[in-house]
Specification:
The structure is a homodimer of 384-residue chains. Chain A has 384 residues and is of the alpha/beta class. Chain A has 2 domains: 10-147, Rossmann fold (3-Layer(aba) Sandwich), CATH 3.40.50.720; 152-377, Orthogonal Bundle (Rna Polymerase Sigma Factor, Chain: A), CATH 1.10.1740. Helix content of chain A is 46%, strand content 15%. Chain A is globular, with a radius of gyration of 20 Å. Chain A starts with 9 loop residues before the first strand and ends with a helix. At the A-B interface, strand 10, strand 11, helix 12 and strand 12 of A face strand 10, strand 11, helix 12 and strand 12 of B. Strand 11 of chain A pairs antiparallel with strand 11 (256-260) of chain B.
Chain lengths: 384, 384
C-alpha cells in the first residue's frame, strides 16, 4: 500500500489482537504506511495481513510460527523474524504501536524507545510492571509516549489546554464496571458469564474481568502516575457510568479540561498514530439531543478493594505494581477457569501483595522479573 | 500597590461595573499592577479604587465626573482623563480588560489593540457591532483577544488541545435561561420581576434579560464567529441547564474537548488576565460526589426566536448584527420599564431587523453607527 500521505509510517505489534486490528483499520482508512507487523502465533491471519499491507518485515513470537510464516511469505521479499525486538531495531518506521498483550510487551516498548521511535502504547504491562524504567528510556530517547487507552488519551489531550506546571490533578473516569453498586456479598456470587456479558468497550476476556473488579482502573492509576509524572494524591477516580467523558484534568485555577466522545477505541488508536493531527474516521459524533444525562459517583473503595490496592502498590514503588499485576493474572486465569470466585480474585491479589513487602525495594528488570515469578507462585498456591 | 509578581500589568475599563470589580478582585488576589482605571460617572467609587490601586491614570467618560475626580485626586499625582481612548494611548499597561457596558466599549477596544495591548474582552458590543473591524485590528496588531465570557473562554481553552485546522465545530452551551421549556403563550405573560429573579450567573439587569430571551446566546454566536473564525454552520448551541460545562469544541476526529468548572465569572476573568498561567484563586473546585447529573437538550428555536435571528444577522453580515443589538437595547429598556412585554422584545427586534435588509452592505464604522441609529428609531416607534 504505497501512499502519498504525510502521516507517519508505523509498526504494529500484536497486529492480530483487538487493538492491533483497529490500528490496521486506521492504517487502511488513512492510507498510512505499515512497515512491520508482529503477532504471537496466528500464522494464517498474519500471512493475510502481510499480503495486504506489504510491510518490510514481520515477526512471530513463537519460533515454529515464524518458520511457518517464512515459508508462506517466501515469494514476497518480506523479512520474517522470530524476535520482535530485532525486527524493530532492523526495520524503519516512525511509530511503534505496541498492542502486545501481557509482560511480553515490555522489551518491545524499551526497544522502540531506545531506537528513537515514537511509541503509541496499548500494552499496559510496560508501565504497570516497569514504569520507572520505561519512562527513563523515553526521557533518554527524547520521545513522547502516546497512550492508546481512552482514559490516558483523554488526559494527554486535556493537558494540551494548559501548562504542565499548572496541573493540579487528574480526574480518571471509570465506568464502574457491570457490578457497580453491588455489595461484597453479592460480588461473591458473580459468575464468569455475568462478568463477560455486555462490556461498554469491546475488549478481550482478561481485561473485561479487570474492568469488572476495577483492577483495570487500578492499573490505569499506576500508568497515569508514570505517564504524567503525578502522585497518587493527584489522581481522583470518578465513576462516570456513561463513558462519554473519557477523563479530565484539573488545573490550579480549578478549571477542568475534559475529552469526550462516543466510546470507541478506534478514536484513541487513530489519535495516537496521527498526532498531532486529528483526522476524520468512521466513529460518529456525540448527538447531544439524544445523549440524556451524564452522571458521576465516587468509587466504592471498600467493596472494590483492588483499586485502593493499586494506589498502595504504586506508592510503595519498586516491583510492587509488578507483584499486583502478576497475582492478578494468576487469579483472573483461575476465575475464567472457574477455579476461583470473583471475590477470590481480590483476596488472592491482596494476600500476595501482603506477602511480598520487600518487592518495594526491587529496581532492575531482573529483580522485577524475579518478584513477578515469586508473586505468581504465591498467588497460585492456594488455588486448587 | 507595587508588586514583584511576573503577571502582566493591566488597565481596567468599566472598573466600577460587575466584571470590572471582579477583575480588581483578581488584581488584589494576585498582586497585579493596575496602571489605569476607567468608569462612566461613579466618582466616589472611582476615587476609592484610585486611592487603593494607585494607577498612573484614571478616566471618566462623563466630563463633569472627570473634572470632579481631578479635584478629588489632586493630591495623588494620578492623571485624570475625560476620554478613555486618550488614557489608553498615553498610559503604560500590558493588558486592557475592557468591561465597559454597551457600544461605548468599541473605541477603547480598537485603541487597546492599535496601541499593542493584549485585550481581555468582556464588552460584547465590540464584536457584536463591529466584529470584522475589531478582528482586523487584532490581526494587524498581532494581538490575541482573550474572551472573558465563560463560554468563549471555555472555547479558547479547549482550542489549546488541538490544531486550529482540525477544528470541526463549536458546541456553545446555554443554560437555557429561567424560562427554558416555556411556550410562546407562557412567555407573553412573563414579568420583569420573574425575569430578574435567580440568574445562574450574577449579572446586570440588561444581560439577565438577554439571557432569558436567549438574545445573549445569539450575541455569543456572533462573537464566536468573529473570535474563532468559524461559520454559523460550525456552531451548535446545546442547552446545558447545570452550567458546569462552559462550552466545547469538536475536532475532525469527533473528539470533543470541554472546559468545566463551578459557574463563577472570576475564573474567566482571572484566566483572561493571567493567561497562559492558571493561578489559584478563591473559586472552589467541582465536587464530583455531589454534582449529580449533567443534562443536554436542543434549544427551542421556534419559541426563542432571537437565537436563530442572531444567526441570520451574522450570516447576512455588515451592520445586521449592529441592528440586532440596537433594536434589542431599545426593546429591553422598554421591557424593564414595563412598556413592552417579554415576547414584545422578540417581536420588536425581529421587525426592526426585517425592516433594514440594506444594513447588510454597511462596512465602515460610520455606516454601522448610522444603521445603529436608524435601528433604534425604528425599534422605538411602536413602543408607546
Amino acid at each position: 500500500m504505497t501512499t502519498t500521505t504525510s502521516l507517519p509510517s508505523m509498526m504494529v505489534l500484536g497486529a492480530t489482537g483487538s487493538v492491533g486490528l483497529q490500528a490496521l483499520d486506521v492504517a487502511r482508512e488513512q492510507s498510512m504506511r505499515v512497515t512491520a507487523l508482529s503477532a504471537n502465533r496466528s500464522v494464517g491471519e498474519m500471512e493475510a495481513l502481510a499480503r495486504e499491507f506489504k510491510p518490510l518485515a514481520c515477526a512471530m513470537a513463537d519460533a515454529a510460527a515464524a518458520a511457518d510464516l517464512r515459508l508462506r511469505l517466501a515469494d514476497t521479499g518480506i523479512r520474517v523474524y522470530d524476535d520482535v525486538c530485532t525486527m524493530i531495531a532492523e526495520t524503519e518506521g516512525e511509530i511503534v504501536l505496541n498492542s502486545i498483550v501481557g509482560r511480553a510487551g515490555l522489551e518491545p516498548t524499551l526497544t522502540a524507545l531506545r531506537t528513537g521511535r515514537r511509541l503509541a502504547l496499548a500494552n499496559k504491562e510496560s508501565l504497570v510492571v516497569a514504569g520507572d524504567i520505561v519512562m527513563a528510556a523515553a526521557r533518554e530517547a527524547g520521545q513522547i509516549i502516546l497512550p492508546v487507552d481512552s482514559e490516558h488519551s483523554a488526559i494527554f489531550q486535556s493537558l494540551g489546554a494548559g501548562r504542565r506546571e499548572d496541573l493540579k490533578k487528574i480526574l480518571l473516569t471509570a465506568s464502574g464496571g457491570p457490578f457497580f453498586g453491588r455489595t461484597r456479598e453479592e460480588l461473591s456470587q458473580i459468575t464468569v458469564a455475568q462478568t463477560l456479558a455486555h462490556p461498554t468497550w469491546k475488549m478481550g476476556a482478561k481485561i473485561t474481568v479487570d474492568s469488572a473488579t476495577l483492577m483495570n482502573k487500578g492499573f490505569e492509576v499506576i500508568e497515569a502516575v508514570h505517564l504524567f509524572g503525578v502522585t497518587t494524591e493527584q489522581i481522583e477516580v470518578v465513576v462516570h457510568r456513561e463513558s462519554i467523558i473519557h477523563s479530565m484534568v484539573e488545573y490550579n485555577d480549578n478549571s477542568i479540561i475534559a475529552q469526550l466522545g462516543v466510546p470507541d477505541m478506534r478514536t484513541c488508536v487513530r489519535y495516537a498514530v496521527t498526532y498531532p493531527a486529528r483526522v476524520a474516521g468512521d466513529v460518529g459524533a456525540i448527538d447531544w439531543r439524544t445523549l440524556g444525562s451524564l452522571t458521576f459517583y465516587a468509587p466504592d473503595m471498600d467493596t472494590f478493594t483492588l483499586l485502593p490496592l493499586a494506589t498502595h502498590c504504586i506508592d510503595r514503588g519498586g516491583a510492587m505494581p509488578a507483584v499486583l499485576n502478576a497475582a492478578n493474572e494468576v487469579a483472573v486465569a483461575a476465575f475464567l477457569d472457574e477455579r476461583l470466585s470473583f471475590t477470590g480474585i481480590m483476596d488472592t491479589v491482596a494476600a500476595t501483595v501482603a506477602a511480598m513487602p520487600d518487592a518495594a525495594s526491587c529496581r532492575s528488570l531482573d529483580e522485577i522479573a524475579e518478584a513477578d515469578r515469586t508473586a505468581r507462585r504465591i498467588a497460585g498456591e492456594p488455588i486448587r
